[in-house]
Structures
1.
Amino acid sequence: MKKGSLISGMLTLILFAGVLFMSSCGKEGPAGADGTDGVDGNMVCMECHNLENKANVHMQYEMSQHHEGEFVGYAGGRQDCAKCHSNEGFIETQYTGADTTASADGVPYPTAIGCVTCHSSHSTFDFENDGDDYALRGTEPIKLLADNTIEVDFGGSSNLCIICHEPRRTGPTPDANDSFFISSSHWGPHHGPQGSFLYGVLGYEFDGAESYATPGSHAHMQPACTGCHMETYSNSKGGHTWWPNLDNCTSCHEGANSFDVKGVQTEVHDLLVELGDLLKAEGSIDADGHPVRGTFHIDVAGATYNYIGIEEDRSLGVHNPDYIIALLKNSIDAIK
Ligand code: HEC
Ligand code: HEC
Ligand code: HEC
Ligand code: HEC
Ligand code: HEC
Ligand code: HEC
């Protein structure tokens, strides 16, 4: 039922009851004036705002790693980490500025990323004319954390993802001896560099046989994060689980039956193994693939940065096939 007709229906009932009451007193009062019409009921609101949808979204969210928040206890309160690893840290650093992450104790009671981490208020209620508005906190272009001269724009919802899914550090720069000091076994871009790979920046770009396309020109700019990870929910993937869903690929890659479209994931996997073996021989990564503290030739350090970043991107090339394959091939050629 439309909200408007609900309201006028209730008004009619009240008037009707009033009339009954008065007639039972024996005095016939004049008929009441018509109630004003309710606002035209916005069925459009109910597309998202209904109990069934809410239950579904919650059910999906509970399957997600955001909800799981495995590292909230470890990183959700800490300075430098909280801004991406907890609800409180993200909102404080990005929006309110009441930044308790900067204090020595950090965020006292960090909680996992949830509805209000990503959603706040609508900017419009006129969905028919203004388009879908998911009440998201940020859909504006993002200046990257590791290099704020680079502005990334996936045009809408996916810009929110990059604020957290981006590298924390740029690649190595050479000292006077063409060397670089790898300072710890945690060195590298950091676990979630998906945003910069998708855009096609911040890899350590060796001049080599393979060229690098103009940043932002890649075909997957268009589905972007939400197109592959959220659009369709099916088989416990996509939607608010955020797990990539094969059903989101087939609209463009007709008949694809795995993420290994045209064998790209297999190719990237093989190149990673080849590069990993070379780096182990150089001593810059250990048997588990973690960086080793020490001073290395800049080419080895650059190739190590690419190796760790592409491993931690975890799409095996899908995020940006051409860029990721070019980085791997040029890294291998540089240190072979
Ligand atoms: C710019 C945002 C950002 C910052 C800052 C950040 N992280 Fe993360 N971190 C992420 C994202 C995103 C993931 C999940 C990436 C994925 O699973 O692919 C992650 C994953 C992790 C993981 C899990 C790795 C694994 O193997 O699954 C650990 C542990 C972690 N971060 C620790 C830290 C610590 C400690 C700090 C502070 C020193 C920190 N992070 C700072 C974004 C960030
Ligand atoms: C990590 C960020 C994030 C979190 C956490 C999150 N959402 Fe969303 N949500 C989004 C994005 C992004 C979209 C828009 C997707 C698009 O553009 O297609 C969205 C869309 C929606 C929609 C409209 C689409 C639909 O499926 O009906 C609803 C409703 C919604 N979210 C509710 C919730 C609720 C409730 C929670 C908590 C259980 C939640 N969201 C948690 C990012 C998030
Ligand atoms: C495209 C999906 C979508 C549509 C359509 C939609 N909403 Fe929302 N709305 C959301 C999401 C997502 C949130 C934030 C998550 C939550 O609160 O569950 C939200 C939050 C709200 C909130 C609380 C935050 C705020 O902005 O004050 C109000 C009120 C609200 N919606 C009203 C409306 C009304 C009224 C309409 C119709 C004119 C409407 N919504 C249509 C998705 C939608
Ligand atoms: C507030 C920061 C933040 C935002 C915004 C965010 N993420 Fe995450 N995301 C994380 C962190 C941190 C993790 C790892 C959680 C953990 O294990 O504690 C993660 C985990 C994930 C994972 C699971 C990876 C794994 O195996 O651990 C996927 C997939 C993912 N995010 C996709 C997205 C997408 C798509 C968006 C945008 C709609 C998004 N995220 C928005 C911080 C964020
Ligand atoms: C073209 C589709 C596509 C786009 C665009 C895309 N992803 Fe992915 N993503 C994938 C696929 C496919 C995987 C790897 C799944 C596998 O092999 O298991 C993946 C893996 C991941 C993972 C690791 C989770 C896992 O399943 O192991 C995270 C986190 C992630 N993507 C986040 C993002 C973010 C953030 C963006 C936007 C900056 C993004 N993705 C854009 C398809 C996409
Ligand atoms: C909106 C359309 C769209 C969606 C959705 C999409 N892709 Fe693509 N993808 C493309 C286009 C366009 C190319 C470039 C094809 C070319 O250059 O011939 C491409 C290229 C690729 C490539 C490189 C191999 C090739 O065909 O050139 C892989 C691998 C790939 N996509 C995997 C995926 C996976 C996995 C998903 C789902 C998780 C996905 N894509 C979703 C449009 C899309």
2.
Amino acid sequence: MPMIAALLAVSFYADVLPILERRCLGCHQAGEAAPMALGSFAEARPFAKAMRDAVLSESMPPGGGLAAGEMAVLRQWAARPTAGVGARAAVMPVRPTVRGDLVLQMAEPFRVGAEATVEYQHFVLPTGQKEGRWVQAVEIRPGNRRVVHHAVAFVRTARSEFLRGGRLSVEDEVLGTYLPGEGVLRLPEGLAKWLPAGAEIVLQMHYTSTGQAESDRTEIRLEFGERPRERVYTMSVAEWEFAIPPFAAAHPVEAEFAVQTGVRVLAVTPHLHLRGRSMRVTAGETVVLDVPRYRFDWQLRRVLGKPVELAAGERIRVEATFDNSRNNPRNPDPAATVRWGEQSWQEMMVAFVDVAIPAAWPPTEIYRHKRF
Ligand code: HEC
């Protein structure tokens, strides 16, 4: 019987397309981040083996995560790529839209040269808001998806020293991120983010070159909502005082923080640069993120299936390692001693942790006794 099972071919329309619809077409369709569309037999057929290799090596979808059964189907189909009966048009995942109650754009287009570059660029966009606003949804919309590798939008409050020679203040936080295939953050009812009066938005853009001169003018769209029950606040659990020695292959850096009030942990985003190798985040006793092979190419935000409640005094712990060796193909300079900095040849060690707190609180409550 196993012989027969092995010979039973899977077919594109019956077996493969449903997997692509669930897992791939969000990016592999016209106008999205991936270089080729995979929505029909004719489009996918030339990539049968590349698709198999990409899912088996867990390089696709970014971050891996295909079920064993799904991988088996793509493996079998690559061995014998037939169309099967019942040809139909793919159901394309629709990108959610965000009402533009406030739309801010980079003041002018940024030119991305033909030569490869990985430098971060920061653009400060004044919001002009006289009153604070509750933000229900955020969309970062790249002007040119070919060159925008990823983007992070920070809220910078009037007093902050971020990019003025200092660090993020407690009131500053991440508002939203753009990763290929994922540019929209919509919070469920009863939860919202806070945009203080007079704040600015700092767009941190990471561009990659396509080999041709290109330009980009990214915009951010905010949808405002009612006062929620709870505020979603993005904590930065970070360690700034580190020095990664030259040629170190797995240099550990840790950060730990005890919350001063109860919070509910909703999501975690690791942030390391080119030498980042691994990160693990533990909230209380629960491991909420474990990325043993961090890839700078694929930033990610992990939303917890089950939020974790932390009581006052419980800890969030971040353990990261950095690879400053010659074996790290991304390493710009293994001979350097590497410290904290915003540029990609410097390093950052932060876990952005989204927590829910009562809407009436200032986030400083979480840090009450802490010098930040
Ligand atoms: C979040 C967006 C996204 C999703 C989801 C995604 N891809 Fe990709 N894919 C890309 C981008 C961007 C590239 C080109 C850049 C790169 O190779 O990293 C790519 C490249 C590829 C390549 C070219 C070879 C390679 O490995 O680089 C293959 C094959 C591929 N994807 C297959 C798939 C399959 C199969 C799925 C679903 C199981 C999938 N992708 C899901 C964004 C995505």
